[in-house]
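Progress note, sequence design subtask.
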């Protein structure tokens, strides 16, 4: 495809004729590998019990069970099962994409971005103030109400912003995704990870927030620095971009003007984002409520933007169509987890990883916990699910190792949060890359230096509580 070749021009210079496979192809082969694993890895299960309306594992209850290897033909049925299991998030992606299609059809976002770009071009210093502020805001969202799937919405805003500022698609993805991810990993009050983990570990809810605030500042500072250094480098020398935006004929069109109706649409959008933050943090909104909010915003914006019913319908379908690849990627990723669950190998892997932590010095044990949670996140890219699976095992284990349960929760938080930025089994990770048309290999290459620094910082931040009274 010529579009893909344009995007990969820079990459191909350094990798000769290597052709990067499409995201769906990568996920398909991962699915095949997991089918193979069900024939190799022994099947096993932990006993489970209900605690505070959540299913948790019973420590020391692991036992081998009758193997249930998945047939090769399941490579064709698992994606459909995954689609069914991920129906809510897929509906969310399609409806939010459709809503943004309507909002974009009004021209309000492009007109608003044109004003921002105009200001930044007149006074370039504003660009270097604006971008860090946006990254910090996304990080705060990740740290307080666990922004994750919601970044799929904001990618549709930051991509055109990055393009208008002559940056690249990688930064268009990184500003909301890595920004929120750094906040998620260094979360202060995230109810979906810290809240659940501390509840299961039987320690006061959101206790230790003072030290986690320091953690958040460190992770956010590292992230802002890395993103801004890359932005500065490619601004000074565009040839250093790892990826270029696809060239579009519309690029040379006259910029949209900010009319009164478009200003009202932008105001509605701003109020909607405020309502989103309130709903998620106070009322516990999730996919259905957030999707309904954006659908309502889209329809109201279309009416105010003077679009006909036919135009609103066309824009909605077009917006949803743009998100179809991301929706299919989510279904495929969920299908991988369906295979691992039906094949009864998740608990076996969990047992092997948790067993390797025992009998080590405290400092090594904490690092092993971090490695354990990071590895598990590949199989189970769900913070709440991972907390429910591992805290019943690691909490009593940390008592035996004379490690604070707060530190164990922190190791879980780091392992879950940091690897979310790169694991190919995460529907959100692969979804944002699909939307931005960023090949996974290029993303991994760009993220590797940042991941190394963040994991080094995470290791240091885990060791401090072992030797200083921070809890």
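Output:
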């Amino acid at each position: 495809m010529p579009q893909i070749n344009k995007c990969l021009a820079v990459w191909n210079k350094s990798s000769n004729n290597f052709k990067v496979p499409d995201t769906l192809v990568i996920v398909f082969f991962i699915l095949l590998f997991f089918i193979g694993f069900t024939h190799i890895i022994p099947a096993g299960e932990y006993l489970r019990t209900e605690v505070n309306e959540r299913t948790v594992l019973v420590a020391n209850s692991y036992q081998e069970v009758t193997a249930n290897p998945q047939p090769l033909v399941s490579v064709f049925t698992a994606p459909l099962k995954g689609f069914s299991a991920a129906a809510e998030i897929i509906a969310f992606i399609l409806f939010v994409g459709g809503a943004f299609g309507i909002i974009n059809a009004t021209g309000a976002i492009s007109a608003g971005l044109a004003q921002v770009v105009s200001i930044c071009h007149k006074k370039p210093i504003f660009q270097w103030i604006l971008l860090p502020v946006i990254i910090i805001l996304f990080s705060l969202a990740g740290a307080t109400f666990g922004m994750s799937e919601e970044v799929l919405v904001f990618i549709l805003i930051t991509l055109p912003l990055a393009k208008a500022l002559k940056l690249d698609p990688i930064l268009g993805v990184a500003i909301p995704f890595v920004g929120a991810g750094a906040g998620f990993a260094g979360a202060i009050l995230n109810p979906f990870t810290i809240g659940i983990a501390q509840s299961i570990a039987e320690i006061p809810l959101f206790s230790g927030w003072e030290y986690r605030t320091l953690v958040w500042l460190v992770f956010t500072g590292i992230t802002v620095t890395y993103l801004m250094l890359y932005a500065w480098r490619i601004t000074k020398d565009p040839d250093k971009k790892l990826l270029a935006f696809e060239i579009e004929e519309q690029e040379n069109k006259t910029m949209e003007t900010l009319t009164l109706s478009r200003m009202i649409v932008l105001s509605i959008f701003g109020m909607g984002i405020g309502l989103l933050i309130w709903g998620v943090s106070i009322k516990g909104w999730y996919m259905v409520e957030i999707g309904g909010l954006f659908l309502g915003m889209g329809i109201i914006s279309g009416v105010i933007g003077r679009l006909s019913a036919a135009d609103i319908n066309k824009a909605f379908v077009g917006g949803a169509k743009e998100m179809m690849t991301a929706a299919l990627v989510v279904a495929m990723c969920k299908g991988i987890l369906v295979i691992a669950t039906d094949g009864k190998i998740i608990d076996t892997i969990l047992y092997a990883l948790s067993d390797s932590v025992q009998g080590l010095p405290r400092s090594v044990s904490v690092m092993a916990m971090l490695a354990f949670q990071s590895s598990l996140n590949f199989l189970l890219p769900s913070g709440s699910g991972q907390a429910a699976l591992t805290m019943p095992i690691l909490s009593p284990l940390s008592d035996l190792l004379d490690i604070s349960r707060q530190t164990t929760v922190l190791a879980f938080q780091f392992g879950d949060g940091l690897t979310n930025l790169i694991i190919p089994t995460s529907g959100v990770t692969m979804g944002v890359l699909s939307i931005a048309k960023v090949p996974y290999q290029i993303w991994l290459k760009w993220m590797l230096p940042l991941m190394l620094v963040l994991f080094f910082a995470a290791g240091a931040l885990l060791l401090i509580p072992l030797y200083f009274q921070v809890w």
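The mean pLDDT is 85. Work on this subtask will continue into the next period as scheduled.
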